[in-house]
Amino acid sequence: MKKIVFLTIVFLLVVFDLNAQAPARYLADGSNVIWFVQITDTHVDSDALKYYKDYFPWVLNDAVPVINPYFVVVTGDLTDSTKSTIPYYGSGPHEDEWLKYKDIYTSAMMTPSFYFDCPGNHDAYGDGQLAYYLKYSMQGSFTNSTQASWYIDNGKGVYHFFYAATTANDGKQWPSDNQELTDDELIQIDRFLRENPNANMRIAFAHHDYEKEDVKNKDRFLILLKQYGISYFGHGHEHDLGFRKGDGNIIKYRLDSLGQSEGNNVAIWTIDNYAVTIKTFKAMSMLPAAVITAPADVVLDDPKDRLENPYIPPISVKCNRAPVRALVFSKAENPDVTFKIDNGEESVMEKRRTNKYQYRGYFDASKLSVGLHSITVKVKSDVTSSTVNEFYISDIPCEIGDEDPDEIPTGDAGYDIQDVKTADDGFSDILEFDAVQADMLVEDTTLSDEDSDSIDSDEYYDTTSDHYDVSGFDTTVSKDTGGMDLVINKPDNGNTEGEADGSGCSCSQIQ
Fold it and tell me: Of 23, 203, 225, 447, which residue is least crowded by CB atoms under 10 Å?
């Protein structure tokens, strides 16, 4: 909740490429990662099933502070608007339901720049103009509109989101309710999209699957989605979990009801360099939770059918240091996080130094066969949880680029957490590197004494042991790495216990 999401309120008149959407990439740089939470169909105050009484407050008060998403989106049926007798015909609107709904999100300290609540068909029962939604919902009362648009600019990319009001405007109640996007609503959606011309990625939401539910004017809505290169659409309404591939290869994700279903009712969407992975959890038992963001999941999480995501890039078999990234959400400060490829051995993942939610590891893709593989991440704290992604290895060039610069840590020369460490005796004045890293340091390495006088590095580098013996001077080893100096300051006591957390050896980056 500490991140800022800006509401789109400024009209922009510019010329732009309508289809300029960034392709998903598998990269070593893990700094362009965002995530958000989706819930749906809270159905306050349902007489049939009352899971919302526990689940809804728990998500906002317990899960959201741990997950710390960029925002929360609720895709409709905020209230129930039905009779207390069977069958549950629509009988709304009921002001007491709306007051209960508002009390839940206001008690959880939700804000208009963080909490985006879309109307559903139950919210329109007896209220075709959605007057109660406009009065009591977060976004309706803040924007005086039944639709909303917002964006995130994380410094690496611009992400645009909006939701459409697919409820009919005639106020008909179940079983006669229907779905519609009016001319005015379509004009507003078009304006949302035109006002965000620089978006690298766009994602749309609504309560209904516009194709399955035969939303009136769905063809015009679909034209806009295609025109602006939208590949992902999230919704609710159907009270089950699954994916569909729609016209235009749009991935449509539907989430189960938070208010009337026991499980599959909380979703965490992650976007890692524009590769999307969505994982679904059960409220009140989902923590600790983890989502593997790289490699992104090529298999869509549908219990009824196996669907593959056409937008997820494969991994090159030529990458011998392929990154693994996972977002870990736990009440424990430092849970144990491991990963394994297929049925291989578990490897430890390290917490990212500039993002406490992101854990990283590496594997050698050249040891894997071309084809489909799986990766499992396990989180151990007071309880243990795990998550699985599937990915393809392909015979393509390894073009993953460099690790993000802010991951070169204080206390580490930036090559690996093990590249600066004590010699075996633990007390000698030796900086020890593995063979590959030693090769990197031989070229253009500068040693200097306490008077900053240059020293011939060849005198101090031993090719047999892959060591720099720095016992003859006190201060600095530096390496020119393309515009950045990595400076290792040797401690006064002569012990070079350089660890990733900076203990013993102080390392810094100087631009």
Answer: 23
* Residue 425 amino acid letter: D
Helix (H, G, I), strand (E, B) or coil at 191: helix
The pLDDT of residue 82: 80
Q: How many CA atoms lie within 13 A of 417 on its CB side?
A: 13
- Global pTM reads 0.77
| Whole-number average pLDDT of the chain | 81
User: What phi, psi does 59 have (nearest 5°)?
Assistant: -60, -50
Q: Give strand ranges (E) for 349-383.
A: 350-352, 355-363, 371-380
CA-to-CA dists, residue 28 to 12, 105, 322, 400, angstroms? 35, 38, 7, 5
Q: How far apart are CA 196 and CA 73, in angstroms?
A: 19
Amino acid at 81: S
Can you tell me the distance from the alpha carbon of 506 to that of 484, in angstroms, rounded to the nearest whole number?
16
Domains, in order of start, for the chain:
27-286 (3.60.21.10), 315-403 (2.60.40.10), 408-510 (no CATH)
- Cβ neighbors of 263 (< 8 A, separation 6 or more) are 256, 282
Return the sign of the alpha-carbon dihedral for residues 244, 37, 25, 356.
negative
Closest CA to 96 of 46, 147, 21, 30: 46
